[in-house]
Amino acid sequence: MCGIVGYVGSRPAVPILLQGLVRLEYRGYDSAGVAVTGARGVEVRKLAGRVPALASLLGATPVAGTCGIAHTRWATHGAPTQVNAHPHGDCGGALAVVHNGIIENADVLRPQLERAGHEFAGETDTEVLAHLIEDAPGETLEDRVIAALAHVEGTYGLAVVSAAEPDKIVVARQGSPVLLGIGEHGMFVASDASAVLEHTRSVVYLDDGDIAVLRPEGYHVLDDESHVRVREVADLAWDLEAIELGGHEHFMLKEILEQAETTRGTLRGRLLFDEGTARLNGLNLPRDAAAAVQRIVLLGCGTSWHAALAGREILESLTGIPAYAEYASEFRYRRMAPLPGTLAIAISQSGETADTLEAMRAARAAGCRVLGIVNVVGSTIAREAQGGIYLHAGPEIGVASTKAFTSQVVALALLGLYLGRQRGMPADEGRELVCHLAALPGLVTHALAIEPEVRVLAERYADARNALYMGRGVNFPVALEGALKLKEISYIHAEGYPAAEMKHGPIALIDENMPVFVVAPKDPVYPKVVSNMQEVKARGGRIVAITTEGNGDLRGLVDHQLRVPAVTPLLSPVLTVIPLQLLAYHIAVLRGCDVDKPRNLAKSVTVE
Ligand code: G6P
Question: Ranked by mean pLDDT, which of 22-31, 326-335, 382-391, 502-511 comes out on top?
Answer without folding.
Answer: 382-391
